[in-house]
Design goal:
Elements lengths: L2 E3 L9 E2 L2 E2 L1 E3 L1 H10 L24 H14 L2 E8 L5 E7 L2
Antiparallel strand pairs: 1-4, 2-3, 5-6
Length: 97
């Protein structure tokens, strides 16, 4: 399980007792990958799903395919991706050791 500096829901760095809050970060990494578009990460410019680009796409399979591909490249094993009609995304994926 990866550990990283955690962000709040508003994507601000969480500081507790004057220090960064570090904890298990798989869900945060998944959320960041889904929301980030290509070219938003300087060190890996081709990383990111860019979920907003799929809002008007009639087939959620395209979004699911992109999520599966990006998570796999990031080192995760994807067990399940479910996209509801309201575009709520549920993912079961874990980092491989």
């Amino acid at each position: 399980m990866p550990q990283d500096i955690l962000l709040s829901e508003s994507l601000d760095i969480q500081i507790i007792d004057g220090d960064f809050f570090v904890n298990e970060s798989t869900a945060q990494h998944q959320k960041n990958l889904i929301l980030s578009d290509k070219c938003e990460f300087k060190e890996v410019p081709m990383r990111g799903v860019g979920a907003l680009r799929y809002l008007e796409d009639q087939t959620p399979d395209n979004l699911a395919r992109e999520i599966r591909q990006e998570f796999s490249i990031d080192g995760m094993s994807v067990n399940k991706i479910k996209i509801a009609p309201d575009l709520t995304i549920q993912v079961e994926a874990t980092y491989q050791n």
